[in-house]
Amino acid sequence: MSYFDRFAIPHPSPAIYASMVAIGLTVLAIIVGLTYFKKWGYLWREWLTTVDHKRIGIMYLISALLMLFRGGVDALMMRAQTAVPENALLDAQHYNEVFTTHGVVMIIFMAMPFIYALMNFVVPLQIGARDVAFPRLNALSFWLFFMGAMLFNISFVIGGSPDSGWTSYFPLAGNDFSQSVGTNYYMLSIQIAGIGTLISGINFITTILKMRAPGMTLMKMPMFTWTAFITNVIVVFAFPVLTVALLLGTMDRLFGANFFTSTNGGMDMLWANLFWVWGHPEVYILILPAFGIYSEVISTFARRNLYGYKSMVASIVIISFFSFLVWTHHFFTMGQGPLTNSIFSITTMAIAIPTGIKIFNWIFTMWKGKIEFTVPMLYAVGFIPIFTVGGVTGVMLGMASADYQYHNTMFLVAHFHYTIIPGVVFAMIAGLTYWWPKMFGFMLNERIGKWAFWFIAISFNVTFFPMFFAGLDGQARRMYTYSEASGFGPLNLISFIGALGLAAGFALLVYNIYYSTRYASRNISSDPWNARTLEWATHSPVPAYNFATVPEVHSIEAFWDQKKKGQELFKGKIEKIHMPNHTGAPFIMSCIFFVWGFSFVFSMWIPAIITTIGIFACMAYRSFEKDDGYYISVEEVENTEKKLRGAS
Amino acid sequence: MKIKWAFLCLALTILPVLTGCESLMVLDPKGPQAETQANVIWISIATMAIIVVAVFVLLVIMLVKYRASKQADDYEPPHIEGNPIVEAIFIGIPVIIIVFLSVVTVKTTYQVEATPEHLSKEEPLVVYASSSNWKWHFSYPEEGIETVNYLYIPTDRPLEFKLYSYGPITSFWIPQLGGQKYAMADMVTTLHLAADDPGEYMGRNANFSGKGFAENTFQVKAMPESEFDEWVDDVKKTAEPLTEEKFDELLEPGHLGQLTFSGTHLEFRPAPEGEYSSHQHGADRAHETSHGDHTEHSHHK
């Protein structure tokens, strides 16, 4: 391919020029704004170089919200295109790029950072730690994810987006059938972000195993920490597979290797296997933290301890184990014979059992409780019936003989949206609303929040329920259009109307953030929800060192027992606190990674070599660097504590 | 009283939905395999309804009975760790359900992967169905004819489709006759179908294969065997022979209408099976252990 062809110059669509101008103007506005308000130093010192888990959590959060809207606009475009038969809003190529990027953005660049946002912010506080085990690596994780996400997003304006589905099955994703650089972006940006996630996995496992407050045995950890722990164990086992698969895919695309081609001994279905060996556990990487959030939210607002804590822990461990034994159900139709399909059917359906246990445990947590319908609680109780529908359709899909009829249809699309949206998106909004006062020191407006909830919950069902019927009526997924005679029209139109409602709901969510930032009272206590776990025992906003003295824990709900039984949490004297130094290295190294990825996407070998050297130089610099961190003096801690106590 | 009304409303909403389902393609089977699958779907819906109703009813009871606004201000919820009997019930019932559904699945999976039982004495009609961007080529080796984008089949006779692809992975699917299976470039998969009723059915590629995917469909016409034989004779007499050059032309990406040829491309371009295949999948392997087999066959000759 000639040099300029690779960059897709001149562009086929004027919309792309408009986007380029918009992106250029936005970047310019940010630069001018930062200069005018003299915020460059602030940005660098307080955010770009921070190693504080709370700040990193907030940066993850902002990125995730941005990506939520990017993926949401993709979704709207798809629903608009299929709203009526033979619509010409998008052409086939554009539609293929849109559903591909929708999938990748939502799973990899929205859901993943969202769970890491909450994990970063909450886990160290819940276990009474000062930070994660490796604060610098944590910053590197974030910046690698961020640069991966940015690299993926520029594909829209430079060179063309990937167009072979978020699963990127070969040989369709190979050079023969996918000739733009789109899939190169896919391979490299997910690789960069994935390395970040893998590092996070190691970091959080170490943090949770080694840095819990005295007295907090494993079976006294709050449920969200438990799910975070298991999630990261899955990450550490699953992500290396993705790393290898993407590496092999990159070799096929850039260096003419034949791992997944359909000739020269390549095996196209090897990609499908590797992808789903990572991809199925990935589903549980997303859903388990959501389960943790619901456990916290439901027990807080039912004003009761979690029912069946031990069986909850057992069920997440079992789910994590089974999540690695079911990947073949994603291609029952590959023709591996009834024996293999039967085995994977049974393992797949078996996951419903521990998941069912959790559902019933949440319901029984409300038994004899005193339920308050706050916004987080609304999402939690809305989640239960919707997710149940998603779960039972999952069991239906798990039955191989019937799956031959559902496979690759809208039925499947309906099913996984029925699990992922109430499971992940509802949980993230619930968690966001729940922990917002801890993050920012004020609460989100409950009234607007409830409006947003009802818009989202009702529109969700309007959007996705018709898809079950469309699937059973023979509508395959990923069809950019269909004929009038097919009869899919009315169902798809209902879906589009629902999608508009969802968009309104998410707009209300943003409005709520804006409104509350301006008008909400800053005069709230550190524990506005009357919550039960350790993170509410410190001030809001949380000081850099989290806890002035390390808490001593005697039960699962340490903070609740302090409030109700008068157990003392903070017994020790204030001592000087050791903290890690800020550093620009993770940010700089990730920027080099960005250029590295971009160079590989376009096969520009000279910058690729230079940046590869640069990445190793950064690592070498770090290994010779002497940095022992610094101490916060007793006086300073006492002053901060006094000030914060006055404030709250 | 209230609960009675609730159930009545539920029944009244469910009935029309269920009757509406009858016209959905997958639930309107025209062949034994699709019928088995439709039955499995109905069994699973009925079984899963137990779980859905249980969860919904329990949830509503909890939310109505234990909401804060209905309780005294000084009510303090008790600390309850759990109850082995209650937990055993809500582990036990799902286990029973999953065991039941597993038995159904295994039985029916073997069924739909084999020739339909009541037709097992009949000689199957073998059709090689291969896809190329974005077309379907149907070769009838025994009849010595080939069609593009349409498929004529006899009723009441087992059909054995041999699936493969010139290009991306596709999935061969005729919803009213049975579930789909992948067609891939480096192996041949086998799909057993049969039609009970004469009629016209929709067939399509269900696996995303690029730009022309949405229009990657074909028409299926089932007819009594005598009519089918007439059609075959007619094609042999009137259709042009398929040459290698012509076939290469057909493989070019794009959409074509319906075409008919005498002779098949299998003569000069055999399917990737047997010694031509890098690894063989699914052909009559109902009673073999697939895993061991798979690795054996993956070794290149």
Automatic annotation (TrEMBL), chain A:
<dbReference type="InterPro" id="IPR036927">
    <property type="entry name" value="Cyt_c_oxase-like_su1_sf"/>
</dbReference>
<keyword id="KW-0479">Metal-binding</keyword>
<keyword id="KW-0560">Oxidoreductase</keyword>
<feature type="transmembrane region" description="Helical">
    <location>
        <begin position="58"/>
        <end position="78"/>
    </location>
</feature>
<feature type="transmembrane region" description="Helical">
    <location>
        <begin position="306"/>
        <end position="327"/>
    </location>
</feature>
<keyword id="KW-1003">Cell membrane</keyword>
<keyword id="KW-0408">Iron</keyword>
<dbReference type="GO" id="GO:0015990">
    <property type="term" value="P:electron transport coupled proton transport"/>
</dbReference>
<feature type="transmembrane region" description="Helical">
    <location>
        <begin position="185"/>
        <end position="205"/>
    </location>
</feature>
<feature type="transmembrane region" description="Helical">
    <location>
        <begin position="98"/>
        <end position="119"/>
    </location>
</feature>
<keyword id="KW-0679">Respiratory chain</keyword>
<feature type="transmembrane region" description="Helical">
    <location>
        <begin position="491"/>
        <end position="514"/>
    </location>
</feature>
<dbReference type="GO" id="GO:0006119">
    <property type="term" value="P:oxidative phosphorylation"/>
</dbReference>
<keyword id="KW-0813">Transport</keyword>
<dbReference type="InterPro" id="IPR023616">
    <property type="entry name" value="Cyt_c_oxase-like_su1_dom"/>
</dbReference>
<dbReference type="GO" id="GO:0098803">
    <property type="term" value="C:respiratory chain complex"/>
</dbReference>
<protein>
    <recommendedName>
        <fullName>Quinol oxidase subunit 1</fullName>
        <ecNumber>1.10.3.-</ecNumber>
    </recommendedName>
</protein>
<dbReference type="GO" id="GO:0016682">
    <property type="term" value="F:oxidoreductase activity, acting on diphenols and related substances as donors, oxygen as acceptor"/>
</dbReference>
<feature type="transmembrane region" description="Helical">
    <location>
        <begin position="15"/>
        <end position="37"/>
    </location>
</feature>
<keyword id="KW-0406">Ion transport</keyword>
<dbReference type="GO" id="GO:0005886">
    <property type="term" value="C:plasma membrane"/>
</dbReference>
<keyword id="KW-0186">Copper</keyword>
UniProtKB/TrEMBL annotation, chain B:
<dbReference type="InterPro" id="IPR045187">
    <property type="entry name" value="CcO_II"/>
</dbReference>
<dbReference type="GO" id="GO:0016682">
    <property type="term" value="F:oxidoreductase activity, acting on diphenols and related substances as donors, oxygen as acceptor"/>
</dbReference>
<feature type="transmembrane region" description="Helical">
    <location>
        <begin position="85"/>
        <end position="106"/>
    </location>
</feature>
<keyword id="KW-1133">Transmembrane helix</keyword>
<dbReference type="InterPro" id="IPR006332">
    <property type="entry name" value="QoxA"/>
</dbReference>
<keyword id="KW-0249">Electron transport</keyword>
<dbReference type="InterPro" id="IPR006333">
    <property type="entry name" value="Cyt_o_ubiquinol_oxidase_su2"/>
</dbReference>
<keyword id="KW-0679">Respiratory chain</keyword>
<keyword id="KW-0560">Oxidoreductase</keyword>
<dbReference type="GO" id="GO:0005507">
    <property type="term" value="F:copper ion binding"/>
</dbReference>
<keyword id="KW-0732">Signal</keyword>
<keyword id="KW-0472">Membrane</keyword>
<dbReference type="InterPro" id="IPR034227">
    <property type="entry name" value="CuRO_UO_II"/>
</dbReference>
<dbReference type="GO" id="GO:0042773">
    <property type="term" value="P:ATP synthesis coupled electron transport"/>
</dbReference>
<feature type="transmembrane region" description="Helical">
    <location>
        <begin position="39"/>
        <end position="64"/>
    </location>
</feature>
<feature type="region of interest" description="Disordered">
    <location>
        <begin position="268"/>
        <end position="301"/>
    </location>
</feature>
<dbReference type="InterPro" id="IPR008972">
    <property type="entry name" value="Cupredoxin"/>
</dbReference>
<dbReference type="InterPro" id="IPR011759">
    <property type="entry name" value="Cyt_c_oxidase_su2_TM_dom"/>
</dbReference>
<dbReference type="GO" id="GO:0004129">
    <property type="term" value="F:cytochrome-c oxidase activity"/>
</dbReference>
<keyword id="KW-0812">Transmembrane</keyword>
<keyword id="KW-0813">Transport</keyword>
<dbReference type="GO" id="GO:0009486">
    <property type="term" value="F:cytochrome bo3 ubiquinol oxidase activity"/>
</dbReference>
